[in-house]
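User: Could you write out the 3D structure of this protein bound to manganese (II) ion? I've included everything you need below.
Assistant: Certainly. Input first, then the structure.
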Amino acid sequence: MADLAAVKRALAAQRIETPSWAYGNSGTRFKVFAQQGVPRNPEEKIADAAAVHRFTGVAPTVALHIPWDKVDDYAALTRYAADQGVGIGAINTNVFQDDDYKLGSVTNPDPGIRRKATDHLLEAIDIMDQTGSQDLKLWFSDGINYPGQDDLRTRQDRLAAALRETYDRLGENQRMLLEYKLFEPAFYATDVPDWGTSYAHCIELGERATVCIDTGHHAPSTNIEFIVAFLLRQGKLGAFDFNSRFYADDDLMVGAADPFQLFRIMYEIVRADALDPAYGIAFMLDQCHNIERKIPAIIRSVMNVQEATAKALLVDRDALTAAQNAGDVLESNAVFMDAYNTDVRPLLAEVRADNSLDPDPIAAYKRSGYDEKIIADRVGGQQAGWGA
Ligand code: LRH
Ligand code: MN
């Protein structure tokens, strides 16, 4: 049986990073439904992230995205975050929104554009030096839409050159998270399309280059927990961008579309003793809340990760290993499903109460009046996020 006290300690120590951009307006190419009370600047995004931490107790850092969170003084922003009770986490680069990047950023045929894109990656590290961030998160929208449009091999050489220059600029306690994505915005070939490509580039770069798994970036029915188990074995799993999807990169609340998949992923983390923050995996959310209130959605998402983690921690490992080694297919699956079918909400309510938190963060948030306050206070100005 799982050691309940150890399970509760692990849950209390869990750390989930929320994304600044999930607090801003977002949508699809068809429509962005702007919401009242949405932040107008990085400070207000950080204030909302601090609210999520106040009610969940396990979300003490917020990831920034540059230039969406560009400010004149990152040290002042970091101090502001600390006053709010949170820290600045990963710094995300953006080489996907500039007209120059139509044919690619670091893989673009034009060396001047490659230079511009690489300089942005280096600028992000300058920002990390000011915010004290450890993680540089790189996602490249780079790709092509038609066979023959560009040379696949040459684009990999260009990518490798930019990654090398960026990697060599990293400070000693900094690392690179290389995110992959199967498609979109490119629809024929993406230059970092899958875990294998990211993994190979990370090996080529060095020990401080690791893979970021965005759970929405795979072909349908990809066994993501296998990728997790494999990369953990290789010591090359650096981070998650958690969200869920029914079809493509839907960026829905993690665990909403497939809570069983999230459980299977967290089981591989627990099995590798990789849950503890000291192990170094960054558990981040990367979501868009197009129609639902954003802060309660993020609180719900954090709770979904906690519930999947609690179930994973409750797997009776000895019974499972015994059944597996005995080749007892049905028993091993039954042991695994017993944990998944366990209602862990009372256990998590206890962990929260033990840590002076309201057992029900969503109800506590609603009672706090924070949503009403930001709707009343945040009138005028330019809302953050995708243009309404
Ligand atoms: C790309 C992505 C990436 C971010 C962006 C907001 O789809 O997952 O992680 O930069 O979303
Ligand atoms: Mn992502």
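Strands lie at 18-19, 61-65, 87-92, 135-139, 143-144, 175-179, 189-190, 209-214, 237-242, 282-285.
User: Perfect, thank you.
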